[in-house]
Amino acid sequence: MSDELLVDGICKFDDEIIQTYFTRLNFRIKNYESHRHRPTNSCCFAIIQFESSQSVNAVLDLRPHRIDNHTLFVKRLLPPSTCSFIERLLPVTSIFVYDRIRKDFDEEKLRKYFNTFGRIINFEHDRIRSRLLIEYDDYDSVDRIFLNKDHLPDQIEIYKNVSPRVQSTIEYHGTCRQKQQDIQVEEQKPKRSHRKQDSHFDEHYQDLLQKTINELIHCKSELRNRDSEYLMLQLGTYAHI
């Protein structure tokens, strides 16, 4: 079982505040990793290792977690052996189910099995692709299924539904709100001074372009003159033969 938790959306708080928040909930932290230097406007996050997987279960049962009215996104961090890298991180609420041997499914049996991990809101049999689509109301239901992959019914394989359409609907603190606000403020600032700089740059560019064109014309003229001189020289040579 996983004893690690991904906590996203911590840019507004220092690491001591995050650790204090969880310790006050009587969760003992074994290890804490902070990831602050993110590219572009991605949000800062932390990976917290607790003493047991029961602590992770308890943290998720207590959702939502808020500090100063700011909601933290929390998700259990799946072990690398359970699924791909992107499947470990994305909070996906639906899975695809395949049978390695048969194209038909015992839908009643599988519905009963997967229903033990949470409330199913959609259960579809895609007969064209020979697979089941199972959707839950909570992304942690999907993560718990992957933690129990060794106990899946015989010949059954599962994959998270990480299609681009699904990824575009995922709501979590993958983008830093503070960085977004800073970008919006910067974009709303008057840009009059930049216009003068742009105008000056355009004039300089036009001058440089015209100078280059003039030099090309001069070079072509020089080449024509040399071609003419070479032709006259050749004609003079033939005249003496």
Measured as a percent range, the helix fraction is: 40-55%
Total count of helical runs of at least 4 residues: 8
What does the main sheet amount to?
5 strands, antiparallel
Main β-sheet, spatial strand arrangement: 2-3-1-5-4
Query: Which structural category do the helix and sheet elements fall into?
Result: alpha+beta
Order of helical and strand elements: EHEEHEEHEHEEHEHHH
Main traits of this protein?
single chain, 241 residues, alpha+beta, five-stranded antiparallel sheet, four-stranded antiparallel sheet, 8 helices, 44% helix
Topology diagram in text:
Blueprint: E1 4-8, H1 15-24, E2 29-35, E3 45-50, H2 53-61, E4 65-67, E5 70-76, H3 85-89, E6 94-99, H4 107-114, E7 120-126, E8 131-136, H5 139-147, E9 156-160, H6 164-167, H7 177-188, H8 192-240
Antiparallel strand pairs: 1-3, 1-5, 2-3, 4-5, 6-8, 6-9, 7-8
Please characterize this protein's 3D structure:
The chain has helices at residues 15-24, 53-61, 85-89, 107-114, 139-147, 164-167, 177-188, 192-240; strands spanning 4-8, 29-35, 45-50, 65-67, 70-76, 94-99, 120-126, 131-136, 156-160. By secondary structure, the chain is of the alpha+beta class. The model has no long low-confidence stretch (mean pLDDT 81).
